[in-house]
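Issue 218. Parser rejects a valid record. Input:
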Amino acid sequence: MEATTTAAAPTVDKDPKRVKRSIK
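Output the parser choked on:
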């Protein structure tokens, strides 16, 4: 899960809603 958060970090700026769903 930690690896996903790191890869999603830069995506947060592009799709903050999508990242929130991935973290959940």
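Fixed in the parser; the record now loads. The chain has two helices and no strands.
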